[in-house]
Amino acid sequence: MNKKKFGSRGPLVSEIGMGTYYDIGWIILSRIGILRGAEDKIKALKAGIEGGITLIDTAEIYGSEVLVRKAIEGYNREDLFIVSKVWSNHLRREALIKSLNNSLKRLNTNYLDLYLIHWPNRRVPINETISAMEEMVDQGKIRYFGVSNFSLNELIEARQATKKYDITAVQINYSLLHRDPEKDIIPYCQKEGIAIMAYYPLGHGRLVKEIEKLKPIMEKYKKTPAQIVLNWLASRDFVFPIPRASREVHVKENLGASGWKLADEDLDYLDKVFPKPS
C-alpha cells in the first residue's frame, strides 16, 4: 500500500483508507447493543491493516468505534491514523469535549489523529467549535482537526475562526460519478494543502456496475472496476478515498487499487466517459 502526505500539514498515511459507516439499520441497532455482523467487519478492518492501510475513518454516530477498537488491538497505535467525527448537535464547547472523551473511551485510545465536525450547525458559532478543537489539540487529545460536509464558504469561515492551528482535512462525497466538488472545494483544498477524504468513492456501489465504460481500462491493467476508480481518486493531489470496510474480500480487493498508476491517456479517457462538471 502506497503512502502519501496527508495534505501539506499531516503525516504520511496510506493513500486508500477504510470507512466504517455501514447503514442506518446498523446505527439504530447499535444503539441497543446489537452489532450486526460485527466479526466480519472486524475481520475486514484487520485485513486492511495487515495490507498496509493506516487511515481508518469512523464517527460517534456510526456505532462502529467499538469495532475499530477491537480491530486495532495488538497493532502499534502510532502506526495508525484514526479519524472520528463529532455530530452536529454536539458542537458547543462542553458537548464537543464530552463527545471526544466518549469517542476516545470507545476506541480505547488516548488521542485521535484527526477529529472532524461531521456536519455544520448554523445555530452554534463556528468560533466556539473551532476554539474547543484547538483546546483539545493543546491537551494532546487530538493531533489535527477538520470538517465534513461543509461547503466552500463554510470551510473558509471555519478557517477564519482558527487562531492557532489550521484546518487539516475535509471529508466530502466525491467519486467519478459525483464530481461536483471539482467546481470549487477540491481546487481550493489542493491550493491550500488541505487533505480531501472522499466518501462514497464507489458511488454507493454504482461505479462497479459501469463495466462497459471501464472495460478498456480493466483489460489493460487487469484490474476490477473498484480498483480502477479507487486508483483514480488516489492519484489526485491530496485525495484519500475511504471505501467502506464491511467484508474482508472487498477490503483485499481494494488493496489492489494501490501500487500502480493510470497512464495520462487513461485519465483522459475517464474524463470523457465520466465528464467533469461544467
Quick description:
The protein has eleven helices and ten strands. The protein is an alpha/beta fold and 278 residues long.
Structure overview:
About 40% of the residues lie in helices and about 15% in strands. The radius of gyration is 18 Å and the shape is globular. The mean pLDDT is about 95. The two termini are about 35 Å apart. Helix 4 crosses helix 5. Helix 6 (about 150-160) links the parallel strand 7 (about 140-150) and strand 8 (about 170-175). An 8-stranded parallel sheet has the order 3-4-5-6-7-8-9-10. The longest helix has 15 residues, at about 95-105. The chain is an alpha/beta fold and about 280 residues long. It has a single domain, classed as Alpha-Beta Barrel (TIM Barrel), CATH 3.20.20. It contains 11 helices and 10 strands.
Q: Characteristics of this structure?
A:
single chain, 278 residues, alpha/beta, TIM Barrel, eight-stranded parallel beta sheet, two-stranded antiparallel ribbon, 10 strands, 41% helix
Major sheet: size, sense and barrel closure?
8 strands, parallel
Spatial sequence of strands, sheet with the most strands: 3-4-5-6-7-8-9-10
CA radius of gyration is 18 Å
Helix/strand class: alpha/beta
Range of helix content? 40-55%
Query: Number of domains in the coordinates?
Result: 1
User: Quaternary state, please?
Assistant: single chain
Distance between the termini: 34 Å
Q: In sequence order, what are the helices and strands, one letter per element?
A: EEEHHEHEHEHEHEHEHHEHH
Q: What CATH architecture label applies?
A: Alpha-Beta Barrel
Strand count: 10
Estimate the mean pLDDT confidence. Answer: 96
CATH superfamily: NADP-dependent oxidoreductase domain
Taken from the alpha-carbon principal axes, the silhouette is globular
